[in-house]
Amino acid sequence: MKSRSAQLALRLDAALPDPDARWRDGVEIAYLGGRLILRLDTDRRLAVLEGANLHLPLPPAASSRQIRDAAEAWLRQAAAQRIGASIERQAHDLRRAVPRWALSFAARGSWSQSHADGSLRFNWRLIEQQPALIEETVGRALAALPPADVTADLWAMQAA
Known about the structure:
The chain is of the alpha/beta class.
């Protein structure tokens, strides 16, 4: 097999798109089945969602990596809040204890995983999907958990 010339390799490598290049002021990102517009705003101390605009506390000269990190940090926090609230609500409706859970940062795989120890793991990118899909995913994950041990509660009820 022939190796390519250094000049040709340079041109081919230069043609590769930079995956971080899309992260800039005004770019749209997925959120709850819709789109948010990123706004760089040095007047802010924290990332703030106002309507369809996510204001990030970054200067206009921020690198694409800084913008991506700030946006994804906000999205992960939003995912933790939304998924956590759904777990608590649905566990309460099912009359079971709220299971231990965590966010997953895997690039591939399913939206949720149930573990034999009764814990759950949800991909943080679930926040990009519509709220109904988030609720359904949480419901399926809770249903896949082993049944709750009710014997301790049964004896507690008889003693009372």
